[in-house]
Every structure is written in structure tokens, then in C-alpha cells.
Specification:
Layout lengths: L2 H23 L9 H9 L7 H35 L6 H4 L1 H14 L6 H24 L1
């Protein structure tokens, strides 16, 4: 089997595993919902104010989507660092980028940025700037 086919097979299996785990995550939680209730909520057949609709569509589904996107973003960041440095052990924490982002957040809080939506965007900008500054310094060194 060629390397391209093995890669395609591995990506297909991992993608299928992601879908299965994401689907199973919709059934796990403190509110015991039956698979039929979750399916009704996903199909839009449950009332908008029903427990299964609120729990499935407003709590569990956004959390599953956010977890999937965050995991994918972390994977891409790790691969980018490993490709940039040509070091399989490189990661944001080892290179100090995580600490640079944390320093940016602390600076934003010192300047009075808080929890409103616009201020949270400012905190994210400070975190990104701190991470970029730390990455640049490490790369230059």
C-alpha cells in the first residue's frame, strides 16, 4: 500500500472516529436524555423550550463543536511549530509562546480590560501580541 493511500485511510478512520465520539458526546451529561429525545431535538421536532431541545441544542452541541474546533486548532498550531522549527518536539509551551500569551493577558488586565465582548477582543489581541513577540524572540535566538 502506498504512503498516500495509508494517509488517506488513516485520515478517514480518524475522521470517522471524531464523528462517532462527537455524536456520543451529545448523549452524555447530567441531564439523562434518551437517544430518541436527542434525535428529536436534532431533527427540530422537539419544542423550542423543551428540556431535550435546550440541553441538546444550546448546551451540548455548542460545547462539542467548540471542543472539536479547539482541538483542531491546537493540532494545527503544533504541526506549524514542528514544521517551522524542524523539530518534532517543538510545541507552544516548550517554546514559550504560551507564556508570552499569558503575559499579554496579564498586561491587558493591568490596563483595565475586562469581560465585556469588546474588552474580551482586546484581551485576545494582547494575548496574540504576547505570543507573537515570544515566538519571534525564540525564533531569533
Amino acid at each position: 500500500m502506498s504512503a498516500g493511500r495509508r494517509l488517506a485511510l488513516a485520515l478517514g478512520v480518524l475522521g470517522l472516529a471524531l464523528l462517532v465520539v462527537a455524536a456520543l458526546a451529545l448523549f452524555v451529561g447530567s441531564a439523562g436524555l434518551s437517544p430518541r429525545a436527542v434525535a428529536r431535538a436534532l431533527a427540530g421536532q422537539a419544542g423550542a423550550e423543551s428540556v431535550e431541545s435546550v440541553v441538546t441544542l444550546q448546551l451540548r452541541l455548542p460545547r462539542v463543536a467548540a471542543a472539536t474546533l479547539a482541538g483542531g486548532a491546537l493540532a494545527v498550531a503544533g504541526v506549524a511549530f514542528q514544521g517551522l522549527t524542524r523539530n518534532p518536539l517543538a510545541e507552544p509551551a516548550v517554546l514559550g509562546v504560551s507564556s508570552g500569551a499569558a503575559f499579554g493577558v496579564v498586561l491587558a488586565q493591568i490596563f483595565g480590560l475586562g469581560l465585556s465582548a469588546l474588552q474580551a477582543l482586546g484581551v485576545a489581541v494582547f494575548a496574540f501580541a504576547g505570543a507573537l513577540l515570544a515566538a519571534g524572540a525564540v525564533y531569533l535566538i
